Amino acid sequence: MEADSSEADSTAASFKAFLQKSSSRSDRNLYDHLVLLLVKIMDERPHDAVDVLEDMSLELKRALFKDRQSSLREHVTPSAGDMLAEHQLLLFKQEQDFNHEDPTVETGFPNVNETAFYLEQAGVGLGREETQRILLALKLLVESQGLPRCRLWGKILGTESSYIIAEAEYAEGDGEQSADEDLQEEEEEEESGTQESETDPVPRSTYTHPPMVPKEAVGTGANRCFYFVCTEPGLPWVKLPPVSPAQITAARSICKAFTGRLDSPVLSYPPFPGNEANYLRAQIARISAGTQVSPSGFYQAVEEEGEEEEETGRDQCQVNPEFEGVSSFEMAQSLSSWVHHIQHILKQGRCTWVNPAMKVEDDSIEEAEAGEKDERPDEPEPEYGPPLLTNLSQDAELFHTPPWSLRLSSTITPQHAVAVLRSNLWPGAFAFSNGKRFENIYVGWGLKYTGQGYSPCVPPPPQQEYPSGPEVTEMVDPSVEEEEEMRMALEEQQEVQQESEEEEEDEEDDN
Amino acid sequence: MFYKLIKLFEDLKNTLKMDSNSLPHFLDVVASSGSVLNLEERTALQTSLVILKKNYKFQRVLFWGKILGLQQDYFVAQGRGEDEMRDRKSLYSLNCLDWLLLPSVTDAMVEEVSKAAQGRFTGDPSFVYELQVSKQEERVFKVTEEKRLAVTVHQIDEEASVVPRGAFIRSPSGPVQINRSFSGLSESEAKRLENFMHFRESKDLPREKQQKAEWTPAIDFLDVLSEDIPKGSWSLQLECASRVCVLRSLLWLGLTFYHVPMTPQHGYVYIGLGMKNLDLPFML
């Protein structure tokens, strides 16, 4: 008996020694590994341990490997998330001047959380935490820039990062300064000298640029508001430059996604005059003009004494103090209870039409040329757009889809629902109204609905480079027979000349 | 044995990502793309999805997304059976309460829809799209909006569904199942597009896939997102203060995938017009 048990013991001991033999590839042995594995299972007590045994074993081996790091100190590189978190911490640490200001006074930044509550019923929003961060960022913006009022315009998604956009209106003094800067820029662009070489003059090109449509003055038309942009709430806000009509017309004919970096170039055909900041501003202008709506009656036309109402329309409207509110049920019934309160952008790229052939002041040669152009019979015709405060039922249908979808946010509890208006031309533009309050927002990619698909415009036909004249016109080379004839004719002429010269000499000799 | 099976199903339920248990959290994370569900819809979904799972005996039910129509929106849910890839059934509803099964998609149906259906979804499932081929021929292609919806859901799943690498494993006997020891991609892995895959029957040649160093046949049986044409049709970003990795598709605008690194949470949802973005080559 003792011999048997000692044999069993020795077998067990030799098996244990086998288990403890270190592996040739790593310094571990099976015995220790099994012990650790069983200890782990004992501690963690996972469900169905037998099924996850292999995974646990693998993880254990991986963990052991990690522990055997070198003795170098760990260098922690701050990730993008860490740096963003530090920026966002500043949002929460804004100073409050409770002594000086009365907190109940209306402040410039909007109550974004309240708007978000209604917008959530409409099915659009950015999530509650993000909205809170945006609220704090807007507060920071208003205080740092001293804006009287600002509004969250929306969010435009991009391929690398997105833009959060805030809209603010110009205070009265700022408009003039930037208008002067704009004029200077235009003058620099117009100066184009032609160089003449002293040797053979190169044929002058008769191509002249089509006259540039002047930018709208800051504070009017498409430049009525200015916009601030940031990629994440907490990062500094960047102001976007005012938009020019050329940029709007170019933006209408391209279809480009935003990358998320304001300085990236916009490569497209027709070439876009500007970089992504300008493109963003142009799209914002188009979206605002097309989709910013309000309940009918909320705004009224600015009434000034002695002014005739021209067809070119009013360009300003003010809040109607007597607006009593319409029930959201009525608002959800028909499109005529909503109106546009932003001016429509004409085909020219501006809100008010300007004849581009008329130059402003300036004594320069180009003025004389412009004067000549005025006399041409084909003057551009003035463009008209729908006047401000037209209601939505007059919006045109494109691509067989109605331009707006209107409904109540809830069918089960219509008593507390809000009216929701969704744009079909600019997917992502929403408006809601609960009768007294309304708000517009855009969250999307910044692109218009193109129906079947976007097709880029065709490049124009090649232009005449040189004026036709004898030096430049092609002529057929003379054939051999014609050359022979010419040579014979020349010879005859020479003979005749020689004879007449001889006769003269004879006559002189005679005399 | 039977008891063990029941326990297995219970476990699966607990590790689910996108079903009615985790719906609110998942919707909050996906909200960065701009679309949310309002409270009424969310609560209705939570209730009706549970009932749906019981009626159809699904393993799990996911909220797939919402297709916006002109008059009404379609809510789509998807139920998964034993084999996650093959046993998929999609259902739609107009009010998040009454669900109807979508017809299963055949090649003939795809062809019909691609010919006849154009423009936005109207919101009426019985609406018939008609296309007359030419004036001489009397042949008219007709397709109902329900079929168009089924084909659209199928196409989006084929072309734009995303799962992180390692979240699903293909067992040797064939069925694709959730990997219960998937603990999430690390922060650095989540920034690379190669670690995300399409959840569809693989279309790439197997030879190309074996070039990675850590190739495992149980995990790498799906097509990788970085091989999609055109390159750049996925936008990978970190949202929610850089905590969540969000992938947005530019081919199907409105598809958003989220994954919280170092956790097993992931999922995708489509909230959009239901139209493929054919302008993508111009946009990039």
TrEMBL record, chain A:
Annotated region (Disordered), positions in chain: 172-214, 366-385, 460-511
Compartment annotation: Cytoplasm, Cytoskeleton, Cilium axoneme
Database matches in CDD domains: DD_CrRSP4-like
UniProt GO cellular component terms: radial spoke
GO terms classed as biological process: axoneme assembly; cilium movement involved in cell motility
Keyword set, alphabetical order: Cell projection, Cilium, Cytoplasm, Cytoskeleton
Keyword Cytoplasm: yes
Biased composition regions of type Acidic residues, renumbered to the chain: 172-199, 492-511
InterPro entries: Radial_spoke
Record carries keyword Transcription: no
Superkingdom in the source lineage: Eukaryota
PANTHER family: RADIAL SPOKE HEAD 6 HOMOLOG A, RADIAL SPOKEHEAD-RELATED
This protein's name: Radial spoke head component 4A
Native source species: Oryzias melastigma (Marine medaka)
UniProtKB/TrEMBL annotation, chain B:
GO CC, alphabetical: kinocilium; radial spoke
One Pfam family matching this protein: Radial_spoke
Location in or out of the cell: Cell projection, Kinocilium; Cytoplasm, Cytoskeleton, Flagellum axoneme
One GO-annotated biological process of the protein: axoneme assembly
Record flagged with keyword Plastid: no
Record keywords: Cell projection, Cilium, Cilium biogenesis/degradation, Cytoplasm, Cytoskeleton, Flagellum
Coiled coil: none
Predominant subcellular localization, coarse grouping: other
Keyword ATP-binding: no
Record-stated family: Belongs to the flagellar radial spoke RSP9 family.
PANTHER family, sorted: MITOCHONDRIAL RIBOSOMAL PROTEIN S18, RADIAL SPOKE HEAD PROTEIN 9 HOMOLOG
Protein name: Radial spoke head protein 9 homolog
Organism from which the protein derives: Oryzias melastigma
